[in-house]
Amino acid sequence: MTISRIFQGIFAVLAMILFVGPVYAAPKIPCSTAKLIVPWKAGGGTHVLFSIYEKTIAGLNVSPKLKVVTVSGQGGNKGAKEAAKAKPDGCTLFAIHQSAFTSHLNGRIKFHYDAFDPVALLTDTPDIIGASAKAPWDNYKDFQKGVLASPKTVATGATFGSTSQFTWLLLERKTGMKFKFVPFDGTRQRMTALLSGAITLGGLNVASGRKYIESGELKAYAIAAEKRDPALPNLPTLKEMGVDMTFSLKRGIVAPKGTPKDVINHWAQILKKASEDSGLLKQMKAKGTGIDWVGPADYQKWIDSSFAEFKTIADEMGWGK
Description:
single chain, globular, alpha/beta, 321 residues
């Protein structure tokens, strides 16, 4: 073989690598279908959204597949405990959102995200500052003025020490408003009270509140998002109202601590591919939920900054003492 032929062969291989990219060797994960533990009841928001991911991944040319398994109880902590002690081999994943912070800061569980390795942050469901149709204010400016004038008198529904209360606590810090919190066990009870006028204020989101807002059965003053939601284009953001605040329920997937990095990255890429699927995006839009895939490193940065914010408010409120 001539030297020129050898060089031609080398150049051909280099060109193929540059065009196709390096060959990706998938890590060895000892299961054909991994378990995704959702720590709340079937039919709830987290179960519904991750079931869409399960079905989407089933149709992709990837392995392993994903199976959603609900392990409810203890406000999400039962499932968290099971996931945290699972073998870190890529066959068990855990669906999580900021309730992990509130449960930990309230002393209900010894760990939060720190018992896991982040895989991917996925969904974004912004909170809406909602009100009963009987509320005396028709816009955000009047609402803020009214609450400032009568601190700790306006009945505001929330599950104490949860993400549903955190929105209002954060709004208090940002504006100086003070609310009179009324406890509820869950979203359904709070929504019933809001619709009946038993409470004046309560958190909403696009999925749960849109039909009531459009029908006039509930009022909405602002959405705690970076930009307006296309489903409610006339609803301003808090930032438009002069309040530098955003708050969304951000759901993601984590793995037991010690899961190998190549396995973490493998799952992150599977979830990224699923997050780009047009069918999934259409279904999520119908649920009033945005998709914003964030990989492991930046997910960890979000966890660190978010925990610091939650801890500041928890310390002010005396949670866990």
